[in-house]
Amino acid sequence: MLAKPLNTYRPYWAKRFGPAPILPMSRAEMDALGWDSCDIILVTGDAYVDHPSFGMALVGRLLEAQGFRVGIIAQPDWQNANAFKVLGKPNLYFGVTAGNMDSMVNRYTADRKIRSDDAYTPDAAANKRPDRAVLVYSQRCREAFPDVPLIVGSIEASLRRIAHYDYWSDKVRRSILVDSKADILLYGNAERALVELTHRIAKGEKVADIQDIRGTAFLRKRLPEGWSEIESTKLDRPGTIDKPVDPYEMKMGKADASCATDENKPKTDLPAGTNVIEIVRKPKADRGRQVVRLPDYEAVAQDPVLYAHASRVLHLEANPGNARALVQKHGDREVWLNPPPIPLTTKEMDYVYDMPYARKPHPIYKNAKIPAWDMIRFSVNIMRGCFGGCTFCSITEHEGRIIQSRSEESILKEVEEIRDKVEGFTGVISDLGGPTANMYRIACKSEKIEQSCRKLSCVYPGICENLNTDHSALIQLYRKARAIKGVKKILIGSGLRYDLAVKSPEYVKELVQHHVGGYLKIAPEHSEENVLSKMMKPGMGAYDEFKVMFEKFSAEAGKKQYLIPYFIAAHPGTTDEDMLNLALWLKKYDFKLDQVQTFTPTPMAMATAMYHSGKNPLRKVTADSDDVPIPKAGNVRKLHKAFIRFHDPNNWPMLREALKKMGRADLIGNGKHHLIPAWQPLSTKPITTVRGEKLERTSRPRRVSESKRKYS
């Protein structure tokens, strides 16, 4: 897979202005830089922090390095278009994003309740961005300057690039490209597409004519000349399962004199009436000129089985090495998705992360605290992408399965910059990681196999035999990073793939003895195989194996350290019995968890397709496929969460009622083998049962001392 390197484009003429100390957010800042206008204006739902972990800073600095003048409009007042005019009219386009998080996930809990804070806002203030921010910001940009091209991107746009189930409205919505009225959508990590698109617009090409860039989605009216179309239902037919299609065209006929010509005369005599198969090899199709047609928006909106089918096909067409273009009709318009972008090379990753970031929030925020910035200010992103393929996670859908790693030199340089430039550094690096802590430089052993692979995960149901699980590059990186002068400790805060880690005991030892601050968070997500199979997560055997290693290496180092497991409640495929078994597992190992994640159906995730359709898109989806149990009702979701927090007295009344209904009243009592007690602590705060009834707590019967009994 070849692509033009990011740093080989001829710079735009405005490069003569040089890099800005920080990208401007006002006319006064533009004047100070000597700019009369911005070439590009980026609109974001986050506060502007000039750090590569914030998408708008990374994109802005990348475009600046290409020679363009970039302005930022961060968290604008969306009630009218005035806030979108503060930097004037952009010469090339508006780039719109909701921010680092989906605006709906950012603003609402898993129970659809409005959150009281926003980690990406100064002083965590709530309500600083609208619902479905990409749509609202796009509308205001159009109102401000109707003739300026509009480009949308970020995780919110990326995961809504086709018709998608929207949990918050409980319906299938159209592609965000249609509703935003954008000229083009960039999905995934879009540096490559963005740089090419921007240079072509700067040269005078119309956005509507640019339809050949990977990683883009746009509207078109008809199939281009020279392309062939394949119905997705023929690739992965929903409904009654047919026999597999033979790769050769087969023509049937009777074995008689008419077919036994000199060319095809059988070498042996065949019994009368024998069928003869004439095999005609079809010419190999050009996958680069094929488009797969997904069921129309109107069809998937009405038929959950077709929705699950479309989700499955989209995920199967996700490998940049073999993915085909996709098209989905919305009314009289066609949403066209080009294949995913070619992953960045290590040199390109270094180029992106080595920009002259100020590594701090914009001065406009003064002394306000931005929680997301405080969390990552002393961390370093070493890679991107994830080949885990967990069905509830959006990382793979957005960043892809191919790991893109920075060089050791670039990472160590950033550690030194944090030491020298970031105010408040005490010698502790909070994380060297990424989407997953231990996938740095891990890839398929064969580039040819990687490009042809169509698996949804490299580590499920087991670790692929073609995956190189060598952790030596990461071990060496850890050792060099903690040897840097002024660095006292390096912690690993990113999620650990422990089934991968146990393949390298040396890595586990290095991690446990040098990079754990007493507690290590890992995510088994559940204890039951029935649920784990719907998540595409490993069984508890891998957790047990890692736990043994963790405790062994902690003891060798003379440290008392603990694993903190994370679990998901109410995931598709979960029954009440599954949650009870998880609660018993937690009790057995004496875990009392305070933070519990309830499953949130995010757009485009495979688990969301399960949630909406009740079918399993990990297998071929048919109308008569086995149904997946879906805990949708609010009280059922609360019950599943309560099972994980069985130690909380607030949950005991609900759990008592549920256990009795399940025939497990034997788990209610005051013994060590019981899950919850039969008594309730005194309180006037109302509690909710599984039926939703409000009750008052009663107190546990108190024993009266013998002396008090005598004198009463």
The total count of helices amounts to 25
Sum up the overall morphology in one term.
Answer: globular
Q: Give the end-to-end Cα distance, rounded to a whole number of Å.
A: 89 Å
Largest sheet: 10 strands, mixed
Strand content: 5-15%
Task: Please give the radius of gyration in angstroms.
Answer: 29 Å
Strand order of the largest sheet: 3-1-4-5-8-9-15-14-13-10
Strands, count = 27
Looking at CATH, the homologous superfamily of the domain at 6-215 is Response regulator
Instruction: Determine the fraction of residues in helical runs and give it as a percent range.
Output: 25-40%
CATH architecture of the domain at 6-215: 3-Layer(aba) Sandwich
Q: Report the uncertain regions.
A: 239-267, 691-712
Q: What is the level 1 CATH name of the domain at 6-215?
A: Alpha Beta
Main structural class = alpha/beta
CATH fold topology of the domain at 6-215: Rossmann fold
Average pLDDT taken over every residue: 90
